[in-house]
């Protein structure tokens, strides 16, 4: 586990201390504007370039940018297996905040098994942006499963890829 992933794991533990035990947190200080990071999160062409930890790729990305609008990502693993995730946006504050959930798969159609709600924030900090991803899971068991799947490493590598992309835009 990288040093950054260890810090994120400690932040997740701190967020859960005395709380519900359902939260995972990742944060990075990225040398890019909030607008560049927001754009990378909301434009399919950009999502395809960073949203899956290499060597995975993003085959499809859809964004319908409005509360209740669909977000859909299809990743492909190195073995050719695909992994689809769908959800809806709950809140979009341009260049500042994105809230989405997999509790619904389109419009307000419930998903079979909700897993988490994501709160992504972009806060100016000097010449950079504090990027924070907070994932609120439905149960402590879902959080533990996500962490065991490699949340800190996978989302951390994606954050590094996001930083590379945003710095170049």
Which labels suit this protein?
169 residues, alpha+beta, 7-stranded antiparallel β-sheet, 5 helices, 9 strands
Uncertain regions: pLDDT < 50 for 5+ in a row? none
Helix content: 25-40%
The major sheet is characterized as: 7 strands, antiparallel
Query: What is the multimeric organization of the chains shown?
Result: single chain
Which strand-content bin applies to the residues? 35-45%
Could you give the order of strands across the largest sheet?
Answer: 1-9-8-5-4-3-2
Secondary-structure element pattern, one letter each? HEHHEEEEEEEEHH
Class per helix and strand makeup: alpha+beta
**Total count of strands:** 9
Number of helices: 5
């Amino acid at each position: 586990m990288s040093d950054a992933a260890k810090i994120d794991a400690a932040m997740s533990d701190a967020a859960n201390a005395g709380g519900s035990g359902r939260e995972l947190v990742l944060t990075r200080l990225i040398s890019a504007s909030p607008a560049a990071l927001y754009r990378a999160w909301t434009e399919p062409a950009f999502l395809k370039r960073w949203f899956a930890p290499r060597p995975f790729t993003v085959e499809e990305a859809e964004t319908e940018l409005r509360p209740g609008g669909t977000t859909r990502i299809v990743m492909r693993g190195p073995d050719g297996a695909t992994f689809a995730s769908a959800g809806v946006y709950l809140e979009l504050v341009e260049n500042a905040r994105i809230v989405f959930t997999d509790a619904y798969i389109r419009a307000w159609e419930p998903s079979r098994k909700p897993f988490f709600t994501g709160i992504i924030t972009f806060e100016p900090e000097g010449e950079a942006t504090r990027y924070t991803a907070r994932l609120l899971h439905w149960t402590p068991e879902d959080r533990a499963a996500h962490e065991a799947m490699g949340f800190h490493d996978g989302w951390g590598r994606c954050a590094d890829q996001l930083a590379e992309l945003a710095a170049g835009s």
